[in-house]
Amino acid sequence: MTKMISLEEARELVLSRVTPLEAETVDLLDAAGRVAAADLKSDIDVSPFAHAAMDGYAVRRCDLAGATAESPITLEVIDEVPAGGVFEGTPQAGQCVRIMTGAALPGCFDAVVKYEIVSMVEGDGKPGGRVAFSAQPKERDNVREAGEEARAGEIVVNKGEAITTAGVGFLAGCGVLRVSVYRKPRVAIIPIGSELVPPSENPGPGHIRNSNSYALAACAKAAGCEADMFDIVPDDEAALEAAVREAAATHDFVVTSGGASNGDFDFIKPVVERAGELLMTTVNMRPGKAQTFGIVDGTPVFGLPGNPAAAYMGFELIIRAGLLKMQGRTAFEHPTIVAKLTCDKKKKDPRRLFMRATLSHGESGELLVTPAKNQSSGLFGPIQKTNCMAVLPEGAQDAHAGDEIACVLLDVAEGTVI
């Protein structure tokens, strides 16, 4: 029998047996949330020209030397340059050009003065009028330089970097419309249990609806994967082995739920051991002690418990890390914060306890955490209605109101700085 290991050991074990998948090329819009599998370069300088950072007047600083509020200097407005337009004239001393945000800055000018601090002397500030300036601007004031964001040929997104929604816009400006990214893992979800019926059916005596498959498939999709839900497998060892072998041959990762303990009808452990390599059977956590992990035909297979909360915790805290690594990610742990417990909690089980709980702010702004009243591992509802997992460490020591405890934020992306 494989010994019980810690959560950290379980996660590292899974991570040690998976590698990033091969690359595929996708349209830029489909690259959001994916990890670049190659360096991405800009084909031009971004921006390709110096341009005005705001609406105002393009000026030569030398024309405004000595300007003050008491002694402003007046310039003639000779043209107006909208975004997309170009000024091709040659200004004389004492002349300026009205310019719009994003418009190319004529090379003969070296600063832009924003519209709001310029006074109208003659006309409405447009060509033919005269405007007054009360100070000399700094050199290149309110100018965005050519190549400020990227230079032609420069790497703008590195291999291994996750592409954000803003990154999609950045790459579009750099002319990158097809992107090499790591392929999404295909995850097979196999529900085990003769008591299960599809959610479309009203369960009869002794039966329950198969809710785990939907939750685990949703977890897989939230982790960036493609998920396929297999048909319910009854408590039959031969049928389970056939389903696992089929899934392992067609998918990148196999997840089963149910049949992970030591009962007479719990078969995932012997199936993995016979069909491949059994690496793990129990983890020192609650809920989620009975967790099976191994390799079948080169494919990772993970057997989760049948209890919904236990299955959910195993996926989020262990399986998810492996799936992220397969997509080229490098951060694998959800962020943790510390909050004050609002009530006493007795702890008799020595395993690390993950309590479904809610974070809130107290009257003085301190962070508080309140465990849900019902901590049954057989329920999804308390997870839906809470926003963190409050953690009590290994050992049988009770916790008391006012104690500071760690809280795992499962809805916050790995690597986020809190």
Automatic annotation (TrEMBL):
Pathway listed: Cofactor biosynthesis; molybdopterin biosynthesis
Protein's UniProt keywords contain Metal-binding: yes
Entry's Gene Ontology cellular component terms: cytosol
Gene Ontology MF, one: molybdopterin molybdotransferase activity
GO biological process, one term: Mo-molybdopterin cofactor biosynthetic process
Class in the EC hierarchy, top level: transferase
Record CDD domains: MoeA
UniProtKB keywords: Magnesium, Metal-binding, Molybdenum, Molybdenum cofactor biosynthesis, Transferase
EC number: 2.10.1.1
Domain MoaB/Mog, residue spans: 188-325
Catalytic activity, as annotated: adenylyl-molybdopterin + molybdate = Mo-molybdopterin + AMP + H(+)
Pfam families, alphabetized: MoCF_biosynth, MoeA_C, MoeA_N
InterPro entries xref list: MoaB/Mog-like_dom_sf (IPR036425), MoaB/Mog_dom (IPR001453), MoeA-like (IPR038987), MoeA_C_domain_IV (IPR005111), MoeA_C_domain_IV_sf (IPR036688), MoeA_linker/N (IPR005110), MoeA_linker/N_sf (IPR036135)
Cofactor: Mg(2+)
Family the UniProt entry places it in: Belongs to the MoeA family.
NCBIfam families registered for this protein in UniProt: Glp_gephyrin, molyb_syn
Function: Catalyzes the insertion of molybdate into adenylated molybdopterin with the concomitant release of AMP.
PANTHER family found in the cross-reference section: GEPHYRIN (PTHR10192:SF5), MOLYBDOPTERIN BIOSYNTHESIS PROTEIN (PTHR10192)
Protein's name in the database: Molybdopterin molybdenumtransferase
Provenance organism: Slackia isoflavoniconvertens
Lineage of origin: Bacteria, Bacillati, Actinomycetota, Coriobacteriia, Eggerthellales
